[in-house]
Recover the amino acids of this structure.
């Protein structure tokens, strides 16, 4: 069981919006930056969001990140079938001195 | 264009050893910390190890401490992971990943394609 908790799956229709939560503690999300990664089937992870809410160049503004206390949220608007993937949150844990990843959330666009 | 290309994976017996390599290009390799992250079949991501740009500082997940050794050759732009005393639970795809900044941000902006390590008799 991961220290960063994500829902195992979410689903929604094309064109809609979805949010994916990531819950942690004061030693990780509460006091460190959160990143989000997208992993399309059979491929390596791709950085979507860093420093809680910043997008690397080339990532569309349909993807957004936010953080409040010990939880973070990834938002995706205008969902497309090509967004079907596993999404992972990640953060440094100051107590464990390790990088933590959430268990991943499988997004299905019906 | 940044590229990370892993190699060295394969089938190994429990208790055996394997060395993974990650050839980097398209950025100033010696300026960035590099990590190994693994993913067991059908499972999530697990950070394994990190090495500073100079190679002077390293750290490991508890699950591999004492068995795995990370290193780098900045003259060859190559990252390594020496894996000893391998266990079945080490079976995974191993990715090398570049830190996003030169000051170790713990977010990874480029990943290799991964190399599969299977530990089985």
């Amino acid at each position: 069981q991961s220290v960063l908790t994500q829902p195992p799956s979410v689903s929604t229709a094309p064109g809609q919006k979805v949010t994916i939560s990531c819950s942690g503690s004061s030693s990780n999300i509460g006091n460190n930056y959160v990143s989000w990664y997208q992993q399309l089937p059979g491929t390596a992870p791709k950085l979507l969001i860093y420093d809680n809410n910043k997008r690397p160049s080339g990532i569309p503004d349909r993807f957004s990140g936010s953080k409040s206390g010990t939880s973070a949220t990834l938002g995706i608007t205008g969902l497309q079938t090509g967004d079907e993937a596993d999404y992972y949150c990640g953060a440094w844990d100051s107590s464990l001195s390790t990088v933590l990843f959430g268990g991943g959330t499988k997004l299905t666009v019906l | 264009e940044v590229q990370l290309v892993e190699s060295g994976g394969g089938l190994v017996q429990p208790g055996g050893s394997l060395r993974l390599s990650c050839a980097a290009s398209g950025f100033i390799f010696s300026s960035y910390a590099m990590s190994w992250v693994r993913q067991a079949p059908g499972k999530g991501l697990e950070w394994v190890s990190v090495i500073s740009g100079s190679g002077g500082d390293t750290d490991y997940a508890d699950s591999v401490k004492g068995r795995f050794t990370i290193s780098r050759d900045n003259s060859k732009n190559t990252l390594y992971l020496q894996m000893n005393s391998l266990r079945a639970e080490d079976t995974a795809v191993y990715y090398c990943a570049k830190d996003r900044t030169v000051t170790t941000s713990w977010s990874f902006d480029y990943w290799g394609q991964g190399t599969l390590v299977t530990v089985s008799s």
In short: The radius of gyration of chain A is 13 Å. The first strand of chain A starts at residue 9 and ends at 12. Chain A touches chain B at residues 2, 32-33, 35, 37, 43-47, 50-51, 56, 88, 90-92, 97-104 (CB under 8 Å).
